[in-house]
């Protein structure tokens, strides 16, 4: 189904212009004061759905901001775009493809057409095959060449074929089934391969080569290394099928690599790599947590899909998060956005959201090819709290940039140790509080005087102690990290990214920029190894190639 993205310039919409004026009017907006003026502010700007509680009251907004942002979403055609996303229209216009990750979590019986064919039966057939495979491994029925059960599953994949599965399987470690350990091999770095291989036995290891295209350099090189290692460890060649399987939409390439057809699970062109953990690319997740938990993950994401489709924009979590991002990026000049999980198990969420957001919305032209005149996706960064508090939070509190942040925190821990979780939670809340409240010059002076410092010292130190405050954040609270809630959380961010792409009029589902580096990489490699005698296009790259050639030892 072709998709006709709106070709309008969003900045010409009356709601955009109204937001511009409103932004000027909010110049002196003070969050501290906003809470004093409105005792209902927390209730007014928070919502609870899909197992997630979102507090967005600590943002530089009032009721009018929300209503103008919602007008903007409507004017930009968001209602139609959401329908197009779920119906399977070709919203990835440059590649003429739909982006149907939402089909992967829909129940059997739903119909989703791609080129006139209902894809739901294939989706559920793949799920059934995953279920059968996982059952065989977990029950010791899938055995290695020496008839021992599989104890280690190694996912070989990179980008979307790595970050999502790794996030989920590590976040759901408390749900891990006994007996099978999950590992991830992504980078083309011999050290990561060797360090992992040293922990494995070829007799009991199953490799999943996870690559939508089956053409990704890092993945193919690691898959070759794994095969070489298996053979060098004494694994018989004719038993390779007990140790290698693949998930790919390129069945021919996987077969050419030597993987048996019955060991290849499908992927489809209509699922983007960074949106693929819900497909058979999620096989290592299911291997780790079992198929019922994997289905719970899908159900959680499906609940968020329904919320996204049905909730009015004023009470729609992904829409609100997206609009807040637009508000800061396009009207306040914010260039980055911090993702700060306060949970050990969620520590990889920043890396996954980084790919999801930056590979999707790191674009400079609109769907129709015209240059975008406003900022698109921000830099996504961050990491686990409290660790970040002792590293980069300083810049959030006193740096010169406005950096909105999302705090993500569970109410309860799977591993209570004394009062650690209470302290973890308290730290999370106090960080968003400190960002909002800050410390005025008068407060800094009073504090220093109370310490008995001389007036000279007070005046010398006070400016350094001032924390401007008024810095915005969202807090997402979940009871505990469960498969369902995690599914909803990830789907929330997927939809947030989509909404922003609609507002900016860009394509969130292609990634042409990544290709240039891949192409140039081949030329650089040929020159480094001497198979191409010609010089590099520029003196810097050539100088570095020469340095490599004269110093390389292994
Ligand atoms: O980095 C570009 C990219 O195409 C990502 O979008 C994708 O997730 C990753 O490479 C891996 O691709 P594949 O699954 O085809 O190996």
From TrEMBL:
Pathway(s) per entry: Carbohydrate biosynthesis; gluconeogenesis; Carbohydrate degradation; glycolysis; D-glyceraldehyde 3-phosphate and glycerone phosphate from D-glucose: step 2/4
Compartments (UniProt record): Cytoplasm
Entry keywords, A to Z: Cytoplasm, Gluconeogenesis, Glycolysis, Isomerase
Active-site residue list: 359 (proton donor), 390, 518
Molecular-function annotations in GO: glucose-6-phosphate isomerase activity
Top class in the EC scheme: isomerase
Primary residence: cytoplasm
Gene3D superfamilies per UniProt: 1.10.1390.10, Glucose-6-phosphate isomerase like protein, domain 1
Domain of life per record: Bacteria
Annotated EC: 5.3.1.9
Catalytic activity: alpha-D-glucose 6-phosphate = beta-D-fructose 6-phosphate
Keyword Cytoplasm among record annotations: yes
PROSITE patterns for this protein: P_GLUCOSE_ISOMERASE_1, P_GLUCOSE_ISOMERASE_2, P_GLUCOSE_ISOMERASE_3
Keyword Nucleotide-binding attached: no
PANTHER family in the record: GLUCOSE-6-PHOSPHATE ISOMERASE
Stated role: Catalyzes the reversible isomerization of glucose-6-phosphate to fructose-6-phosphate.
Family: Belongs to the GPI family.
Full protein name: Glucose-6-phosphate isomerase
Species lineage: Bacteria, Pseudomonadati, Pseudomonadota, Gammaproteobacteria, Pseudomonadales
Gene expressing this chain: pgi
């Amino acid at each position: 189904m072709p998709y006709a993205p709106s070709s309008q310039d969003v900045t010409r919409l009356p709601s955009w212009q109204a937001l511009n004026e409103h932004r000027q009017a909010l110049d002196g907006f003070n969050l501290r004061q906003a809470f004093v003026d409105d005792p209902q502010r927390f209730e007014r700007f928070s919502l609870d759905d899909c197992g997630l509680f979102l507090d967005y009251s600590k943002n530089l907004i009032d009721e009018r901001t929300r209503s103008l942002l919602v007008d903007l979403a409507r004017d930009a055609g968001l209602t139609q775009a959401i329908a197009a996303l779920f119906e399977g229209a070709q919203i990835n216009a440059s590649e003429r493809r739909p982006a149907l990750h939402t089909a992967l979590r829909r129940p059997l019986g739903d119909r989703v057409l791609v080129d006139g064919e209902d894809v739901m039966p294939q989706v559920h057939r793949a799920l059934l095959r995953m279920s059968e495979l996982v059952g065989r491994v977990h029950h010791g029925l899938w055995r290695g060449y020496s008839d021992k059960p599989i104890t280690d599953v190694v996912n070989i994949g990179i980008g979307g074929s790595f970050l999502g599965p790794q996030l989920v399987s590590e976040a759901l470690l408390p749900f891990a089934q006994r007996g099978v350990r999950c590992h991830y091999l992504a980078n083309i770095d011999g050290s990561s391969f060797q360090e992992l291989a040293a922990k494995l036995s070829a007799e009991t290891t199953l490799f999943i080569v996870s690559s939508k295209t089956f053409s990704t350099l890092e993945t193919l090189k690691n898959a070759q290394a794994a095969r070489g290692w298996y053979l060098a460890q004494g694994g018989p060649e004719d038993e390779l099928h007990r140790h290698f399987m693949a998930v790919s939409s390129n069945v021919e390439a996987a077969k050419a690599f030597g993987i048996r057809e019955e060991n290849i699970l499908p992927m489809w062109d209509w699922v983007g790599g960074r949106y693929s953990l819900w497909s058979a690319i999620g096989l290592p997740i299911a291997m780790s947590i079992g198929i019922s938990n994997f289905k719970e993950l899908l159900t959680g994401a499906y609940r968020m899909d329904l919320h996204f489709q049905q909730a009015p924009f004023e009470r729609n979590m992904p829409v609100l998060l997206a609009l807040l991002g637009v508000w800061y990026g396009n009207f306040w000049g914010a260039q980055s956005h911090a993702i700060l999980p306060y949970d050990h198990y969620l520590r990889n969420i920043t890396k996954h959201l980084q790919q999801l957001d930056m590979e999707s919305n790191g674009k400079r032209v609109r769907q129709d090819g015209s240059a975008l005149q406003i900022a698109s996706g921000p830099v996504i960064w961050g990491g686990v709290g409290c660790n970040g508090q002792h590293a980069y939070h300083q810049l959030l509190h006193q740096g010169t940039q406005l950096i909105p942040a999302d705090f993500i925190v569970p109410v309860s821990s799977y591993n209570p140790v004394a009062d650690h979780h209470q302290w973890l939670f308290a730290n999370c809340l106090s960080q968003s509080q400190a960002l909002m409240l800050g410390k005025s010059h008068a407060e800094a002076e009073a504090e220093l005087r109370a310490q008995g410092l001389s007036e000279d010292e007070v005046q010398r130190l006070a400016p350094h102690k001032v924390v401007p405050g008024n810095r915005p954040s969202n807090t997402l609270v979940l009871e505990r990290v469960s498969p369902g809630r995690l599914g909803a959380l990830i789907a929330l961010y997927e939809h947030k990214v989509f909404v922003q792409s609609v507002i900016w009029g860009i394509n969130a589902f292609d990634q042409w920029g990544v290709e240039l580096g891949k192409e140039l990489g081949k030329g650089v490699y040929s020159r480094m190894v001497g198979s191409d005698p010609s010089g590099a296009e520029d003196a810097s790259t050539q100088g570095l190639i020469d340095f490599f050639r004269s110093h390389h030892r292994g």
